[in-house]
Design goal:
The protein is built from two helices and ten strands, in the order H-E-E-E-E-E-E-E-H-E-E-E. It has 203 residues and is an alpha+beta fold. It has a single domain, classed as Calycin beta-barrel core domain (Lipocalin, Beta Barrel).
């Protein structure tokens, strides 16, 4: 009986240690998400011009102007319109959800209505840090991609990378990597209004 009791005690100790380690890991992940989120939020209200790097042979982005506007910041959500020339259809949306951060791409038409290809994205992965958050494409997002962007390769992994000098938005797909870097010193005084703020909204 004493042996069984000792075995049970040892098992309970091991379970307790494991639970403690899991709790510590979860707390560290939560802390990473919060610090990352707050670091972006600190730039709320500012817009920055950027440059793109495309690993493919595509010339689609050559000579085009990129701008990231960090706006509409709450304790749980940040909206970041990504302007390309006079196209203001893309809004990156970061939302805190169940200890993780969800990235969605809100695509609009000029009248404010939603594009068919919209709300795709994913949740931050466990390997994300206070400076780098990776967002593997979710199953729901892949279904949206298949239905509305059949020529696009998948799955995508989006990343937002922070440093003291810049913020980088990156997407990696099979056969292609697109990276856009925005320096915090390259501010834009009067960013255009993104199309989600258009007067005639249909959603």
């Amino acid at each position: 009986m004493k042996i069984k009791s000792r075995i049970m005690t040892a098992a309970l100790i091991i379970i307790g240690i494991a639970a403690s380690l899991m709790g510590t890991s979860a707390m560290a992940t939560d802390s990473n998400q919060d610090k990352f989120f707050d670091s972006i939020k600190a730039h709320c209200g500012n817009a920055f011009s950027g440059k793109v790097e495309d690993s493919s042979n595509s010339t689609a982005y050559n000579g085009r102007k990129f701008m990231l506007h960090i706006r509409d910041c709450s304790d749980t959500q940040i909206k970041m319109p990504l302007h390309i020339d006079d196209n203001s259809s893309r809004i990156l949306v970061l939302t805190k959800s169940d200890g993780r951060i969800k990235l969605q791409h809100d695509h609009r038409h000029a009248d404010g209505s939603s594009d068919a290809l919209t709300q795709y994205g994913g949740y931050s992965s466990a390997d994300s840090t206070t400076n780098v958050q990776n967002f593997p494409e979710s199953a729901e997002s892949i279904a949206i991609t298949k239905a509305h962007a059949p020529t696009r390769t998948y799955p995508s992994v989006w990343s937002i990378i922070l440093s003291s000098e810049d913020i980088t938005y990156q997407v990696v797909r099979p056969g292609r990597t697109i990276k856009t870097k925005f320096k915090f010193t390259d501010t834009v005084a009067h960013p255009p209004k993104a199309w989600d703020l258009s007067r005639a909204k249909h959603d």
